[in-house]
Amino acid sequence: MKPNVKKKTRAAKPRETTPAPDSSSKTTAAEERHDRSKEGGSRWTFLTNHSHVLIVLHAEPELVLREVAARVGITERAVQRVVQDLEEEGFIRRERVGRQNRYEVRTDVPLRHPIESHRTIGDLLQLITG
């Protein structure tokens, strides 16, 4: 039979509370989210990594994928997968120039989702880049 051993208990930590919002503050929830996104606190964006890669390659077709990854904020391997997806679906063409690739974005191809399929890649790029 086991000896009667008393278990140690931890003292409960006091809960940290968030102060109530100051009624004189005019900051809205949307403004706070926007401020957090500027500081890197937001984890999502309205456009996908695929569209970000497409936008970067359209602006600079000779860019190496390492630089595309740095600009988009994803890994080089993720950019390689995105480029493969875009190429397989006919959104971009890859041309070998010496030891590097040059990418041509096919602006006449319609967007994939039924909601926006009446628009083309060129329409999206025009909207984003102005």
Low-pLDDT segments, ≥5 res: none
* Rounded average pLDDT: 83
- Which fold name is given in CATH as the topology of one domain? Arc Repressor Mutant, subunit A
Backbone structural class: mainly alpha
Task: Give the end-to-end Cα distance, rounded to a whole number of Å.
Answer: 80 Å
Order of helices and strands: HHHHEEH
Largest sheet: 2 strands, antiparallel
Radius of gyration from CA coordinates:
25 Å
Q: Approximately how much helix is present in the residues?
A: 25-40%
The tally of helices reads 5
Instruction: Describe the strand arrangement of the main beta sheet, using strand numbers.
Output: 1-2
CATH 4th-level superfamily of one domain: Winged helix-like DNA-binding domain superfamily/Winged helix DNA-binding domain
Tell me the fraction of residues in β-strands, as a range.
Answer: 5-15%
